[in-house]
Write a structure and sequence with these properties.
By secondary structure, this protein is an alpha/beta fold. 25% of the residues lie in helices and 31% in strands.
Length: 203
């Protein structure tokens, strides 16, 4: 049985990006970048919007508001290009041009369930907020990993991650601090039908 990780990079207030901010909010450090390079190989899962954005970066389109990529960003993009990738979309008309990318037009939940059942192997999402939400609701997520950068982007933040999520109980299985300021937390998620009972209430 394969394992699925939902992987998010966020501001402290739960945004995936912020208008005018550089990649990684400009705060990536050597420990964090080394961890990115050391992560186990995984098949990356994404939706159409993330595919369009990331494949654009791979083709040399710099992020909005910047003139060029940093060396760290170029290295990250090269690693993504080399990785096996699956994009789930019914709207993409063209065959994916980004190397090592497979297009799946059918139901993403069914497809990921089949991928997990095919055998051992690691699957990990990249971006794709709505895809991650669907996979979590379906009970397919084994690990929920968030790397939080020490910024609050209340005025400029975009892509709020947890809107329209179900209630989820998170059992922490790992945590780490990179470069004295970037916090990784990793959980095993349990989707709740309703909040748990208040065990402190008196009879």
């Amino acid at each position: 049985m394969g394992e699925l990780i939902v992987d998010f990079i966020t501001s402290l207030d739960g945004y995936a990006s912020g208008k005018g901010w550089p990649g990684w909010w400009g705060l990536e450090g050597p420990e964090y970048l080394s961890w990115l390079d050391e992560r186990p190989e995984a098949t990356l899962l994404m939706g159409a919007n993330t595919y369009r954005l990331m494949s654009g970066f791979a083709a040399g389109v710099a992020p909005a508001g910047t003139d060029d990529f940093s060396g760290e960003e170029e290295s990250s993009i090269s690693g993504l290009t080399a990785a096996s990738k699956v994009v789930f979309s019914s709207t993409l008309e063209e065959t994916p041009s980004w190397a090592n990318t497979t297009l799946v037009r059918g139901d993403a939940v069914q497809a990921v369930r089949a991928m997990k059942a095919d055998g051992p192997g690691l699957l990990a999402t990249i971006g794709s907020i709505s895809l991650c939400r669907s996979l979590l609701r379906a009970g397919l997520v084994d690990r929920f990993r968030v790397v939080m950068f020490p910024v609050i982007t209340g005025a400029t933040g975009s892509e709020r991650i947890y809107d329209r999520y179900p209630d989820v109980l998170l059992d922490m299985i790992a945590s780490r601090t990179f470069d004295g300021q970037i916090q990784l937390v990793e959980y095993r998620p349990s989707v709740l039908e309703h909040p748990p009972p208040d065990t402190t209430a008196s009879d």
